[in-house]
Amino acid sequence: MARTEQQSNDKFAGRWFWRYASPAAFYPLAGKIENVCWVLACLLTLVGLYVGFFVAPTDATQGEVYRVIFIHVPAAWMAMVIYLAMAFWAGTGLVLGTRLSFMMSHALAPTGAIMAVVALWTGALWGRPTWGTYWVWDARITSTLILFFLYVGYMALAAAFDDKKKGDRASALIALVGAINVPIIYFSVKWWTTLHQGSSVRPGSSSMATTMLWAMLIMTFAFWAYCVAAAMHRLRTQIIERESGSAWLREAVK
């Protein structure tokens, strides 16, 4: 009985995937997802910033400067998560040959690069008063900088080909190979002696005050909603560019 139910669930998931695997089917759904996520991003950002900057207590060691973590940490997390998502869709495109998978991967890349820049920039602002310098060649900072360059390389290679299909395949290889850098970023503070502090949030435990933790989690969901909304907007733009001659698109954009 359980096996039959599992097979039924697998078939449903497969039908759902292939139903929305085409740009024509996913275009209107992407618009709905985008609208919902913009609203969520705005609301969660307002709540998260209020809790983080006006409700959360002052840190006993770092003082007020610690509040940069409510921007820095969510941006760093999203930079890593987006890269893995980008690599996943690039790999899916290579294996299944679905155009929408490559488009999804391309749509994620600019937002991921922005998240990496925000993480590096806010980290520098945090580092100056706590470490006495804006930049050190710390293992985590350096690997995050490499992550940014991987995003840039991916986008540059994809744009270097006049043939979109060749650009899709070539850039997908960079995405897949570069994914190895994400666990290096995550585990760098454990593998090497660095100035960068260890994780304050771990599965099942946290060294942060409850209010601080809530502020960080709310801001993380705000960043997540923003990234999804931005990716869906960019995906719809790519669909319009690539499917410009399609009859369904002329009807959809009326």
Uncertain runs: 5-9
Summing up helix and strand content along with how strands pair, one would put the structural category as mainly alpha
Strand order of the largest sheet: 1-2
> Helical stretch count?
9
What report would you give on this structure?
It is a single chain. With 254 residues, the protein is mostly helical. It has one domain (29-198, 212-248). The protein is built from nine helices and two strands; from the N terminus they run αααααααββαα. The chain has helices at residues 2-19, 23-55, 69-96, 99-131, 139-159, 164-178, 181-191, 210-242, 247-252, and strands at residues 201-202, 205-206. Strands 1-2 form a two-stranded antiparallel sheet. A hairpin with a 2-residue loop joins β1 (201-202) and β2 (205-206).
Task: Give a short synopsis of this structure.
By secondary structure, the protein is mainly alpha-helical. The protein has one domain (29-198, 212-248). It is built from 9 helices and 2 strands.
Tag the structure with descriptive keywords.
single chain; 254 residues; mainly alpha; two-stranded antiparallel ribbon; 9 helices; 2 strands; 78% helix; globular
